[in-house]
């Protein structure tokens, strides 16, 4: 009897092993069916790309001459590079798009740190280059600014960093249509009310829209152009 049970057990094991081998062979022989890739990239690719191309601060110069802008900025240690490489540089002069040249980089002045430096910087550039615009928008701190200057004259400027730092000229049509809130000096100095903070946050979101109306939104430029056309990067030797 024990021998018979042992034989039955051995037969069951052999049959089981044979079935497993057969199943493995059938699975390997079956054509593979491609599974659809689950990726969030298509949903958020545009948004991530846009924000990666839109700096917190940038200049727009009405010009098609890169070297004229380079000279006006006093750029030294200049080198050709792409837009993505330029994001890591002190200053990057992008190739002309629709008659405008964008300048980005940490070498640009921050009006929230010293608004007078920003004023002199934009004014001096506009004397040399004509139409110059300055934009800044911090999504974290809600600090923001926009400036229009032409031939050494500020046409319109507004800067806010917890309070109004710079208010000059009449609101433009684009500002009115976008419903950008601009507080005067006395009104802004009253308090950091919730309504002011809400307005500041809304303004930050609308700065790129204003830039698109006045000149260019950096994130609106065709990505293929940014990859194919080099700009000029370097450091400014000028102090304003």
Q: Could you walk me through the main structural features you see in this protein, from its secondary elements to its overall organization?
A:
The protein starts with a helix and ends with a strand. It has 2 domains: 1-31; 53-236, no CATH class. The chain contains 9 helices and 9 strands. It is globular and about 90 Å long. With 240 residues, the protein is of the alpha+beta class. The protein has helices at 2-29, 41-53, 66-73, 83-86, 115-129, 173-177, 185-190, 194-214, 223-228; strands spanning 57-62, 75-81, 91-93, 100-104, 131-137, 144-150, 153-160, 164-168, 231-236.
Series of H and E elements: HHEHEHEEHEEEEHHHHE
* Count of domain modules: 2
Largest sheet: 9 strands, antiparallel
Distance between the termini: 104 Å
Largest sheet, spatial ordering of strands = 2-9-3-4-1-5-6-7-8
Query: β content, as a range?
Result: 15-25%
**Strands, total number:** 9
pLDDT < 50 stretches = 31-52
Tell the overall outline: globular
| Quaternary organization | single chain
How many helices? The count is 9
Rounded mean pLDDT is 82
Helix fraction bin: 40-55%
The secondary-structure class comes to alpha+beta
The whole-angstrom Rg is: 30 Å
């Amino acid at each position: 009897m024990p021998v018979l049970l042992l034989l039955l057990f051995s037969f069951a094991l052999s049959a089981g092993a044979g079935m497993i081998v057969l199943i493995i062979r059938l699975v390997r022989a079956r054509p593979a069916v491609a599974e659809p890739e689950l990726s969030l990239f298509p949903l958020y690719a545009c948004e991530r790309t846009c924000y990666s191309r839109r700096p917190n601060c940038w200049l727009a110069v009405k010009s098609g001459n890169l070297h004229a802008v380079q000279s006006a900025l006093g750029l030294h240690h200049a080198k050709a590079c792409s837009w993505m490489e330029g994001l890591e540089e002190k200053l990057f002069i992008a190739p002309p798009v629709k008659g405008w040249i964008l300048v980005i980089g940490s070498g640009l002045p921050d009006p929230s740190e010293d608004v007078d430096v920003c004023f002199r910087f934009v004014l001096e550039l506009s004397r040399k280059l004509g139409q110059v615009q300055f934009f800044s928008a911090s999504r974290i701190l809600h600090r923001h600014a926009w400036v229009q200057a032409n031939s050494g004259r500020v046409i319109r400027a507004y800067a806010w960093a917890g309070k109004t730092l710079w208010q000059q000229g009449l609101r433009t049509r684009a500002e009115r249509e976008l419903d950008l809130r601009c507080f005067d000096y006395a009104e802004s100095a009253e308090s950091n009310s919730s309504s002011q903070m809400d307005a500041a946050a809304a303004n930050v979101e609308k700065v790129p829209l204003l830039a698109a109306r006045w000149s260019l939104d950096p994130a609106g430029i065709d990505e293929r152009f940014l990859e194919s056309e080099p700009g000029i990067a370097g450091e400014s030797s000028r102090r304003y």
